[in-house]
Amino acid sequence: MKTNTDPHQMALTSVVYRNPVTSNTHYNELEVRHSLLARRATSINRISIPEHASATLTFHNINYIVEAKSILNKQCLKCPNLPFFKAQQQKQILFDVSGKFMNGMNAILGPSGCGKSSLLDVLADRKDSNDLSGLVLVDEAPRHPSFRYTVGYVVQENICSGTLTVRENLWFSINLRMPKEISMTEKNQRVTCVIKELGLEACADTRVGTDFLRGVSGGEKKRTCIGMELVLSPKILLLDEPTTGLDASTASSVMNCLKDLSQRGRTIIFSIHQPRYSIFKTFDTVMFMCKGRCIYHGSPRDVVSYFATHGYQCEQYDNPADYALDVLIDVSRNLDTLMRLNNIYNTTNANVLALHHIKESLTNNNNIEQERQKYKIEAARSIKAEIFYLSQRTLRNTVRNPALALSQTLVSIVIGLLAGLLFYNLKRTIEPGVQNRLGAIFFIILSQTLSNLTAIEPLISESALFIHERTSGYYRIFTFFIAKLLCDLLPMRVIPTILFSGISYFMIGFNRTGGQFFIFLLTIFMTGLFGSALCFFIAATIHVFAVALIIAILIFVVMTMFTGFLVDLSSVFSWLSWIQWISAFRYASNMLTISDFKGLTFCLSNATNFCPLTGDEILDTRGLAHANSWDLWKNFFALTIMSIMFFVFAYIQLLRMKKTK
Ligand SMILES: Nc1ncnc2c1ncn2[C@@H]1O[C@H](COP(=O)(O)OP(=O)(O)OP(=O)(O)O)[C@@H](O)[C@H]1O
């Protein structure tokens, strides 16, 4: 393959530099280097996956400490789930870890909980820098702020869109993550090339699959996730346990695939649990970790002899990987041995040399972090393009997985018919006309409220995908929010609203004027929109479906109780009655009540044509002002404000989701 340039560097075109501070000589050099790269990138007119894209990643004295919650005292063990019984405690996960990963297959091995994933996250710049000390360098320079978005990182869980095909997932990744300068032809070339490299030709146009939709195999799904990173053509590819959950042959095929990539110059770094020998021997280097410390880093061929010198003998037919893991388990139980092996590792010649090389950089470490924060990163695509690609995916998702949309539509038809039959052709009599009319309004608001609970599920089920894509810099939160609104929340309210209103309004026999039907339609739509906004906010705040659902139901029930239909609001305790002002459903039912009752007269049911009660009197009794049109529209205004407020809250919650882990 032809290699005209380095697309990893090309991705830097998506980075702009704002107010770089020039107080530090070392950083000045970096800045010059980066701007040179950026300038060079703009002149590139052809992209191909480079055969020799290699990078060396070194890390020095990495310490990672988190705030962990611990139970305060023994008595509190009885109530461990209550947050106020927990105290913040510092927990060190990584202890002075240093090392160097060059192009090739670099494995990180160790027992569960030894800090493999944490180290990978640190190397990928996905941890909060406040919890970290130490230095990570790429080709002897500090990582660029965009490193997190340009490095390939395949998380342990296979996160990609299940309703899209393998090829569509790759396109989604390349469309959103590569700079806009890259042409369609070049992207197509790259996607085709990655599909070929990963051996995905046979299933390229098969849907990946979800829990309920059979798709590609586990190995193919894993390779799709790898492909979504490879389309960026990263020099460094990090993978968290790429073989977990795969059978032996699929694990081998994934590892062979990675081996191929490494032979083409990429630096592949991955954590792995108990590899078979056939896999173990493909590694170029292995790093053994134990309780957050590194105790060996070198060739897999030297493992047995290295540990033998420390008193651990490998049995004749034992797999060296199993043997090493047994050694690690033994070492983890013996703190003295662990410290001894860790000290030996830290003082090995190679390591000392590496530290010597970057001594100057180490002293500038604090400055480097501060400087990194000052760079502003811009997304690779324009807002319009991001909305387009996200909407395209959402629509495909809806069309290919129509259960939710169909059930929402069907439920609207059924409830519309039910309301129509229950309150069929309302009479304008005092008994039972008035009561039935009020009952119909209450039923309509209640049913529309409850049918909006469905808005919780899609966001919660997509939260893992959203967090992953946000961390990997696929799109801005704003564009995700707009696409969700335009292609998911709004259509799911508009169509059912029209169907429900069209059926129920005329069957029930509310006033048949165009204006009143429009107010009815608008009220139903706004009720749905408010319900969606509230559910969106709850789903963005609480990620456990059952908890989110129960909270949404609780809020809906309280709001329904304060509509004024179940209890006379003037008789409620004064310290409780303020809830009526935040009951969106009171505003909705007020709109319907005022619109329908105003100007009506209600007759006696004995057909005497004596009509002693007017709709205006009923509105007066219910305390609903109706003198002018503002009295009606102020309810619409309040409903709109509350919907906007909850959409804003939902957006803030999305922003608050941490990019780092
Ligand atoms: N944010 C955190 N708060 C508290 N403890 C944490 C946090 N992050 C990691 N840990 C702890 O740090 C240790 C190392 O976690 P890590 O996920 O890095 O281990 P691992 O070697 O990848 O484990 P596994 O192989 O089981 O995935 C674990 O004991 C984990 O519970």
TrEMBL record:
Membrane-related topology note: Multi-pass membrane protein
InterPro entries named in the record: AAA+_ATPase, ABC2_TM, ABC_transporter-like_ATP-bd, ABCG_dom, P-loop_NTPase
SUPFAM superfamilies per UniProt: P-loop containing nucleoside triphosphate hydrolases
This protein's UniProt keywords: ATP-binding, Coiled coil, Membrane, Nucleotide-binding, Transmembrane, Transmembrane helix, Transport
Annotated GO CC locations: apical plasma membrane
CDD domains from the UniProt entry: ABCG_EPDR (cd03213)
GO molecular function list: ABC-type transporter activity; ATP binding; ATP hydrolysis activity; efflux transmembrane transporter activity; organic anion transmembrane transporter activity
Subcellular location: Membrane
Stretches of the chain forming a coiled coil according to its record: 358-385
Main localization (coarse): membrane
Chain segments annotated as transmembrane: 403-426, 438-460, 494-511, 517-537, 544-567, 636-655
Domain ABC transporter span(s) in chain numbering: 77-316
Family to which the UniProt record says this protein belongs: Belongs to the ABC transporter superfamily. ABCG family. Eye pigment precursor importer (TC 3.A.1.204) subfamily.
Protein name stated in the entry: ABC transporter domain-containing protein
Organism: Rotaria sordida
Organismal lineage: Eukaryota, Metazoa, Spiralia, Gnathifera, Rotifera
